[in-house]
Amino acid sequence: MEKTLFQPEYRILLGLIRQARRDSGLTQEQIAEKLAMPRSTIAKWETGQQRMDLLEYCSYCEGIEVDPVVLLSQFRAATTETGSESSQ
């Protein structure tokens, strides 16, 4: 099985996360300061070089003032529209 890091659905999620940060008006540097972590970590998350775990995802969403459930709903809608979501 292909690692999730390389699946098309993961790329969709990364795009939504990146766009949500941009929509919040924050730079990677600003979100990194809010979360007290290196900017390189934010960049790696947003580019898929490093996987974000659930707690990091929730912290990231809190930092950009986006409800994590709303962002996941957008992900679900995007993957359903593109037919990327696998059958359950």
Descriptive overview:
With 88 residues, the chain is mostly helical. The protein has a single domain (7-82), classed as 434 Repressor (Amino-terminal Domain), CATH 1.10.260.40. It has 5 helices and no strands. It has helices at 8-23, 28-35, 39-47, 54-63, 68-82. The two termini are 16 Å apart.
Topology at a glance:
Layout: H1 8-23, H2 28-35, H3 39-47, H4 54-63, H5 68-82
Structural class: mainly alpha
Helix-strand topology string: HHHHH
Total DSSP helices: 5
Mean pLDDT: 89
In the CATH hierarchy, the third-tier topology is known as 434 Repressor (Amino-terminal Domain)
CATH class: Mainly Alpha
Q: Percent helix among the residues?
A: 55-70%
Segments where pLDDT lies below 50 for 5+ residues?
none
**Rg, nearest Å:** 13 Å
CATH-derived architecture: Orthogonal Bundle
The domain tally reads: 1
CATH level-four homologous superfamily name: lambda repressor-like DNA-binding domains
Shape: globular
Strands, total number = 0
Which sheet architecture does the biggest sheet show?
Answer: none
Provide the β-strand percentage band.
under 5%
End-to-end span in angstroms? Answer: 16 Å
